[in-house]
Amino acid sequence: MSANLINLLIEATGQTLYMVAISTLLGTMFGLPLGVFLAISQRGELLSAPWVNKVLGLVVNATRSVPFIILVVAIIPFTRAIAGTSIGTTAAIVPLTIAAVPFIARLVENAIREVDSGLIEAARAMGATPFQIIRKVLVPEALPSITLGLTLAVVSLIGYSAMVGAVGGEGLGDLGIRYGYQRFMPDVMAVVVVILIILVQLVQSVGEWIAARVDKRAPKGRGQ
Amino acid sequence: MSERAPKGASIVFETVGKAFTHPGGGTVSAVDDVSLTVEAGAITGIIGRSGAGKSTLLRMANGLERPTSGKVLVGGQDVGAAQGAALRMIRRDVGMIFQHFNLLASRTVAGNIALPLEVAGVPKTKIKTRVADLIERVGLTAQADRYPAELSGGQKQRVGIARALATEPKVLLSDEATSALDPKTTQTVLELLKDINRELGLTILLITHEMAVVRDIASHVAVIDNGKIVEAGTTYDVFTAPHHPTTRAFLSGVLGVTLPSFLKGKIQDTRPVGPAEEVIRVTFAGKHATDPMLALLTRDLGLQVNILAGAVEEIGTRPFGNLLVSLDASKGADARAYLERHGLLTEVLGYVG
Predict the structure, then answer these.
(1) Residue B27 sits in the same domain as residue B138
(2) pLDDT above 80 for B287
């Protein structure tokens, strides 16, 4: 494989990491509060707002129903409004984020709902405000599950990022299509796949390691 | 922390009712027209079967449930009507402990105890010293940096108690706090509650389905059945002279006076024709508790008395005995009249042919 190709691979890996990192960051920024709200706004919950909950739930489901490749082209005007352009790696972050937000929101919602309702009751009995309950009880208690959920989200985003070549987004997936498929270079395709496998493995291992670190629910033979 | 011991507050339930509405219409009354005064500084037990409404009643004392009728006053403040910030301020004066402890798995012992102080906006340095005091008070100094998953049930409840005391409340609510603990641990937790009540003077209102818990620490007791208080008074009075069948049912388990199993199948409610034995529960209270009444019965009435079961115990510091005896049914009425004359309580449980 030529030095030129190796450079291309390194560059593409960097672009994939860039897209996935920024969209995960933005997706969490919007998805975490949305997920918390979805979890606590059902009827009879901490901030009961069943109608708002229903509407948001519908929006989330609708967004998640759209296949990613269709989402990418469907929101091109929106992408242009946000990123100033609809093509390129930075522009690709917009659809990736739009896909990440509802996904992360649902993962966070599930994680928050797993928190024992007795803890909410104890916090209410202490005189905690709903916001204090979210910040000091729900999110810290759900953190191990949220971490595993985010790991899953990152892995999915790595997969999605391979499709943004359709709008001129670069990265590993785009490289694989253009060189490995269109130019009949199976060795490039193979290397792209291997790099993706390694990336996903790394993300999964790091995610699980962090989740185990923040999980205090089971005793772990801490030295006396 | 004893130098500025907070005084306990009274809890007054005024014709309180709580009805739950089902989504499909129709209401269920969990608490029905309850009037009860919980004395400041006392330990009061509310006992009832599961579903009797005791948990709902307790949770109205800190506004976790709102009454649908009547008033709940804690230290004179109307908890049922309080909203938002006012309710949160009242809640800081009312600590609560739970059957399943409800500790945060993500926080250490110290972190859990600090939570109510953080919530109340206490400065960090003050939190540190206060938490250290509380940890020492409940005897968990060695476990301060442990997580709940590394503690035993009894230790977890000690954390729960320390956490409930953090904001120096005037009232402590206990929701079946010992029901998940083994008998020995239950005793140590009850001792701790008793000490706290004595040293801090705070009011303790506890709910339980175990009469033994009431006997061991409560000075007052209320029996709840089907949403209504059916009997209330000092523990001694209720134990020695129970009126309501529910109360008696609860007491029969704790006083060692259940019928021996060989009798259970044979006993009947009406006196059979012909020779029969009458089974009587005799309750000795106060100064008569140690009198040799059965010997006197034999001497004065010439009766043969069989002892079936019995126990003498203390409630608070006062002795109290309970005996199940059987004697010739034709002399039953005389015997009971004789015993009642001497200040004992009797109850006919049935007949054996």
Answers:
(1) yes
(2) no
For B301, the domain range is: 257-352
- Read off the tokens for A109: 């919602």
Q: Which of B185, B217, B251 is the last residue of a domain?
A: B251
Residue B202 in this model has a pLDDT that exceeds 90: yes
pLDDT, tens only, B4-49: 445 789 999 999 999 988 877 788 889 999 999 999 999 999 999 8
Residue range B238-262: average pLDDT? 79
At residue A11, the pLDDT reads 92
Whole-number pLDDT of residue B24: 77
How many structural domains are present in chain A? 1
Helix (H, G, I), strand (E, B) or coil at A216: coil
| CB within 8 Å of A159: residues ≥ 6 apart | none
CA A1, CA A186: separation in Å to the nearest integer? 11
| pLDDT for residue B2 is more than 50 | no
**Preferred mutation among A47, A117, A126 to probe B, highest tally of B CBs within 10 A:** A126
- Is the Cβ pair B115, A119 closer than 8 Å? no
Nearest neighbour of A126 by CB, restricted to B107, B119, B173: B119
Q: Could you tell me the pLDDT band of residue B289, with boundaries at 50, 70 and 90?
A: low
- How much is the pLDDT for A223? 41
- Is A127 close to B150, i.e. CB distance below 8 A? no
In angstroms, how far is the first alpha carbon of chain B from the final one? 64
Residue A221 inside a domain? The answer is: no
CA–CA gap between residue B112 and residue B107 (Å, rounded): 6
Residue A174 lies inside a defined structural domain of this protein: yes
pLDDT band at A202 (very low <50, low <70, confident <90, very high): very high
Q: Are residues B242 and B308 in the same domain?
A: no
A219 touches chain B (CB under 8 A): yes
Would the pLDDT of A84 be above 50? Answer: yes
Does B209 share its domain with B332? no
Note the pLDDT of residue B310: 82
Which of B208, B226, B251 terminates a domain? The answer is B251
**What distance in Å separates the CA atoms of residue B91 and residue B81, rounded to the nearest whole number?**
13
Query: Are A141 and B106 within 8 A, CB to CB?
Result: yes
> Does residue B2 belong to the interface with chain A, where contact is any CB pair within 8 Å?
no
Residue B37: inside a domain = yes
Contact yes or no for B104 and A132 at CB 8 A = no
Bridge partners of residue B318, in order along the sequence: B315
Containing structural domain, residue A9: 3-214
What pLDDT, on the 0 to 100 scale, is given for residue B257?
A: 62
Length of chain A: 224
